[in-house]
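Quick one, tokens below:
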């Protein structure tokens, strides 16, 4: 029953919100965000706990302000995503203004493939739609197979409609396909700041330990593709902003694990710079740091994988494939 309700919720969102005028959709998103924030559910409390690491000098009042802005940013993401299939190409091209995009275009022109690795900031789907529309460049990403399966197919159809190739998250098989796309000079995009399985790569993030996926670094080493961190944020305008960070180099080490660790830490540092500048646009409503995990289990509580609640799972987060690591996430509803 819960799975059917969740699928129905998304179906309603894509059908009803898509039909709303944009100002009405924005107002609806803000109303939902403020209601969830006032209820102070588990997700909101977790968001504040995470923001306390990002902004360590913030007092309780400042954290509450940040979490409210964070929930509004989070619901802006959903309202935009529900409406994206109805946006014109001109609206998509004008809806995103990235800095230093030359890192991406130069990398694609070199013909060795490019990996874009992002944290859960602002609207990944809009950035992807901009790439396929403004740059006329298709790309490949990975989605976890969801339950109910109808919800998974709904997400896949939605993202394929925006010009993305979506692979099921099936370990080595997905990794192999991503590697082939990169060797052919293609583009791969992965949301990749959270892998709390025991096989994630341990990194320092805002002064504490967490684990992040090894996949982006492993793909770059295996294929020679350029690895580019990307961060996204909103301002007071209807346009989303972003930055393509400089390439992450492969360090000179004979040990693959060392190379992977150094490269993944470089991704974490780039993510941290963007999140510190725009903490309200980091949509992390789940456990992230190892210190927050239950002592009885090195992974989060058993439950469906989700990058963006309240869905039981969000295929956006299944970014790690191939090198025996997987993205373990949890749902914490607002």
């Amino acid at each position: 029953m819960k799975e059917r309700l969740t699928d129905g919720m998304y179906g309603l969102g894509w059908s009803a919100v898509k039909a709303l005028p944009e100002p009405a959709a924005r107002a609806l998103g803000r109303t939902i965000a403020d209601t969830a924030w006032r209820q102070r559910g588990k997700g909101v409390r977790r968001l504040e706990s995470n923001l306390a690491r990002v902004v360590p000098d913030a007092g309780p009042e400042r954290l509450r302000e940040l979490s409210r802005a964070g929930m509004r940013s989070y619901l802006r993401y959903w309202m935009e995503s529900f409406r994206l299939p109805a946006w014109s190409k001109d609206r998509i091209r004008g809806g995103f203004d990235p800095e230093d995009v030359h890192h991406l275009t130069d990398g694609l022109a070199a013909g060795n493939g490019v990996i874009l690795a992002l944290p859960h900031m602002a609207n990944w789907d809009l950035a992807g739609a901009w790439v396929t529309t403004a740059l006329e460049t298709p790309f490949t990403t990975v989605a976890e197979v969801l339950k109910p399966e109808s919800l998974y197919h709904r997400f896949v159809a939605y993202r394929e409609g925006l010009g993305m190739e979506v692979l099921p998250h099936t370990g080595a098989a997905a990794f192999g396909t991503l590697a082939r796309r990169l060797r052919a000079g293609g583009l791969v995009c992965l949301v990749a700041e959270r892998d709390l399985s025991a096989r994630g790569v341990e990194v320092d993030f805002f002064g504490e330990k967490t684990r992040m996926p090894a996949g982006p670094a492993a793909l770059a080493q295996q294929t020679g593709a350029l690895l580019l961190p990307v961060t996204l944020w909103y301002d007071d305008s209807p346009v989303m902003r972003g930055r393509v960070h400089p390439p992450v180099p492969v360090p000179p080490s004979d040990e693959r694990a060392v190379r992977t660790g150094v490269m993944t830490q470089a991704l974490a540092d780039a993510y941290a710079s963007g999140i510190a500048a725009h903490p309200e646009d980091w949509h992390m409503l789940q456990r992230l740091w190892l210190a927050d995990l239950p002592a009885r289990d090195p992974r989060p509580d058993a439950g469906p994988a989700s990058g963006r609640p309240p869905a039981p799972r969000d295929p956006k987060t299944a970014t790690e494939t191939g090198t025996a690591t997987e993205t373990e996430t949890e749902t914490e509803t607002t």
